[in-house]
Inverse folding.
């Protein structure tokens, strides 16, 4: 039964982005001929607006309708790892694209590496079953909004993602809007992106092993370990979030180098959102009786995001919290 559901979800995941892909391929195949039609002319002249229109119609509206039919908004979680790759190739293949070949090739390689890492982590976390469960934050909002959730989900789950994803992917547009030669700052940007991908990879892998080990202990009826405090998690309470933010800010450095410094708004909004998610995650941890005391002490000893040396806090101080 689970296998059949996963296969159905796989088919759904394959079909839902096709309207945008087919429309875009037909437009690109025409070479962006401005004389072909008023629509082709508009598409060729407004790459950013077209990206937003396609996102709104295909993701915000269609994904939302599919989510309502399935009573599960899992699709956006999966496509969070894929949409940046699609946007990158959209900007790269657009008839208005102008880019330095080296910078474009590096951006493609880095974005695919980021997407492969995050997609693998998502599928591994879900037990390699598509649509196995909905994001716990959506579940909480579903309970919070009750009968109004069906329409509130359009704004909370989908329209908000357009702001985040289009915003943080703006540097991909900047990269394909300038043929400025590769420079030192591009090297710094690339190195920052690689560091972010690696940190997030190792942090998520360590977390997966911790969760898997605890699940095994639970099945055996043995005590579980309340808090992960090994590896990168010894120096940061959320090293996976830190790595993810490092990736997006590294990508922004490409835009900064190309004179598009206003694009900092994308990673800034995303960082603020992740800051709020961090608060929600930690509140959730503290609600679990088997780990609340250990986690409070962990909070006292360990940096929130940026990896840093641990503070020497005696357990007796915990009572002061």
């Amino acid at each position: 039964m689970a296998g059949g559901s996963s296969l159905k979800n796989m088919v759904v995941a394959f079909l839902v982005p096709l309207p945008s892909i087919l429309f875009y391929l037909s437009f690109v195949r025409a070479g962006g001929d401005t004389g072909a039609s008023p629509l082709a002319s508009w598409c060729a002249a407004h790459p950013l607006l077209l990206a937003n229109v396609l996102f709104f119609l295909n993701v915000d509206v269609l994904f939302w309708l599919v989510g309502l039919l399935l009573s599960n908004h899992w699709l956006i979680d999966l496509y969070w790892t894929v949409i940046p790759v699609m946007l990158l190739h959209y900007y790269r293949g657009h008839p208005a694209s102008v880019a330095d070949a080296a910078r474009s090739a590096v951006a493609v390689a880095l974005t695919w590496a980021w997407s492969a890492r995050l997609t693998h982590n998502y599928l591994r976390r879900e037990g390699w079953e598509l649509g196995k469960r909905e994001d716990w934050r959506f579940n909480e909002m579903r309970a919070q909004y009750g009968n109004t959730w069906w329409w509130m989900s359009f704004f909370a789950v989908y329209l908000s993602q357009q702001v985040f994803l289009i915003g943080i992917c703006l540097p991909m547009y900047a990269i394909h809007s300038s043929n400025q030669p590769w420079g030192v700052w591009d090297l710094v940007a690339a190195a920052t992106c690689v560091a972010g991908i690696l940190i997030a990879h190792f942090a998520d892998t360590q977390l997966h092993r911790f969760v898997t080990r605890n699940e095994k202990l639970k099945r055996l009826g043995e005590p579980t370990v309340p808090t992960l405090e090994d590896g990168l998690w010894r120096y940061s309470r959320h090293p996976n979030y830190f790595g993810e933010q490092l990736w997006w800010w590294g990508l922004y450095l490409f835009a900064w180098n190309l004179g598009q410094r206003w694009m900092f708004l994308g990673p800034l909004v995303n960082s603020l959102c992740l800051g709020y998610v961090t608060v929600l995650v930690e509140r959730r941890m503290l609600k679990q009786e088997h780990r609340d005391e250990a986690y409070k002490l962990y909070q006292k000893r360990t940096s929130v995001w940026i990896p840093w040396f641990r503070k020497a806090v005696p357990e007796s101080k915990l009572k002061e919290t």
User: Anything to note?
Assistant: The chain has a mean pLDDT of 92. Residues 1-180 form one domain.
